[in-house]
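Exercise: predict the structure of this protein bound to NG1.
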Amino acid sequence: MKNNLADFEVIAPGRVNLAGGHTDYNGLPVLPMAMEQSIRIEGRIRDDAAVHVSAKVVPGEQVEFQLQAPIPKHPRGHWANYVKAGMQGVLESPFWGSHEKICGCDLSISGTIPQGVGLSSSSALVVASALALLHANGRKIDPILLAERMAEAEYYVGTRGGGMDQATCLAGKAGHVLKIDFFPLRIKPVLWPDSIAIIVCDSLIRANKTQNALLAYNKRALECKLAALLLHVYLCAQGQTQPFARLGDLFNPPWSMNYEQLSELIAEALLEEYDFEQILEQTGNENQVIALLKDYSFTDESAFSSLKFACGKRYRHIANDGRIVEQSLTQLQAGNAESFGRLMDEGHTSERDDYEISSPDLNRLVEAAKESGALGSRLTGAGFGGCTVSVVRVGDIDRVISGIEAGYYADLDAETRSRNSQPVFVSTPAEGARAAALT
Ligand code: NG1
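Solution:
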């Protein structure tokens, strides 16, 4: 669509996470911020219930569909599924209600968030599409309600993710990081100090969340689900029979644990790793386990017996990183940047060794930042490639960036370097998503 024909625009930012990796779907907190890079949609309201959508990165391709759930999917990995996910999420939500007339829209998508690098371009597109549909129909929804809805809506594309990305995208606040708690979603903006800068580095190694990385991501989420089942069995044997869905529930009554107790319980009750037979034996519930595996995209039953599930290790990381979020917040509010940085390092070690989502490239990038004076550095987002985030004193920005250039990028071949013309940038916390009429 040509610029001058659009009658509204939507901006939805990406996000950088500073603490709490993969904690969101386990019901433990995260500490992200919305970034300046965003998805932008120009839209024109239609009289019928059709959506016509094109994306600048795929010139010549236009996707058309009707606003009636269930919206048929494109093949897995197609960009239009993110648009459909957001819109179906709105259509199926209680807040949408019944409409005599639904207005569709013509949309043109562009954006500045690098894709597949853990900066949440996919959730930004899901959120932007939902806001476009809402705007076209003159509706505004409370960001918390919408964020919860969008987290579920993204299951449409096959990822069994948490709610961090959609919440950050919708509730971002300029100059603030967000402490986010889940189930129910709660968001607290925390002022980011001017004296400390946040540097994002793209490793240039891509984690394709529509292919292998999707399975690896879902495997971590599945291991956590199985760990919850195993913990439940353990607690039942001790007379605590109340079921729970995720690790974070153990902070609530009747358990009311703290992080120390949680970590002790994990060490006591869970093995580092289980094979399929051990999981069946210890949970005593074959049907539930098989249903879970299938739900998390493991559909080939003949391969089940070769799978290993690192439940103890995974949960050790989750409990660790949840604690790191709480302690980071305390250090941030006390103005203690060194301690905040050390906690980032601890988070990286935990993601590298226990959650096993780092890579040699991400580790080298983290080291390069540390060696050149960063206060702390860790991978950000889902992992398996993608970006790191580092914090540095404002006066050290140039020195750290030069050090990272020499310590990491200088060794890369030309093809790898060409994947992103600006792989290192200083990121400042930005405003959340918004839709507005163009006049
Ligand atoms: P990215 O990096 O955008 O794929 C994913 C999940 C988050 C969170 C992080 C890890 C989705 C949409 N996003 O983010 O919920 O679990 O990984 O902290 O699945």
